[in-house]
Write a structure and sequence with these properties.
By secondary structure, this protein is mainly alpha-helical. It contains 8 helices and 4 strands; from the N terminus they run ααββαααααββα. The strands form 2 sheets. Strands 1-2 form a two-stranded antiparallel ribbon. The chain has a two-stranded antiparallel sheet with strand order 3-4.
């Protein structure tokens, strides 16, 4: 499976800008709304309170992690290269935010695999909670992801 992000630099730049914009840059580790140590653009893997990364390190980390999440996302999509760029980028943003395992079990993936991209885009709106609590920031994020997802379908 070839990474679309590696083949399409415009798509990669759009994904980094989208996810980076949603996540926001924090160079020092902080606790997210549910208490998880987080760094840079929403990175949680291996983060400990007190950690620090430069902006350049954060940008490189995000680009690398998006390729990792893309690889996982592609494994659960039947025809990932037939998904329009807007929907593909929206699904990648959601995968980065909720995790690949959750994305692969989601209505987003199931509907996309059934050829129902409109339904898959609508399913993004179901993912606006963290620890069972609806977060206004996640609601706005999902609305923007859905709008991007529906563009070009």
């Amino acid at each position: 499976m070839t990474s679309r992000l590696k083949r399409n630099t415009a798509l990669a730049a759009a994904a980094v800008a989208l996810v980076g914009g949603f996540e926001g840059l924090r160079n020092y580790a902080y606790r997210d709304p549910v208490g998880i140590p987080t760094l840079c653009f929403g990175e949680t893997r291996g983060v400990k309170m007190g950690d620090y990364k430069t902006t350049a390190e954060c940008k490189a980390m995000l680009a690398d992690r998006l390729v990792e999440f893309e690889t996982g996302m592609r494994k659960c999509l039947v025809r990932p290269d037939r998904i329009p760029d807007g929907a593909y980028t929206a699904f990648l943003s959601a995968s980065y935010n909720i995790g690949t395992a959750a994305f692969c079990k989601s209505s987003m993936a199931k509907r996309a695999n059934q050829g129902d991209l409109n339904g898959a885009c609508d399913a993004l709106l179901m993912w606006d909670k963290a620890a069972g609590i609806r977060l206004p920031g996640l609601t706005k994020r999902r609305q923007k992801e859905r709008a991007l997802c529906l563009s070009g379908i």
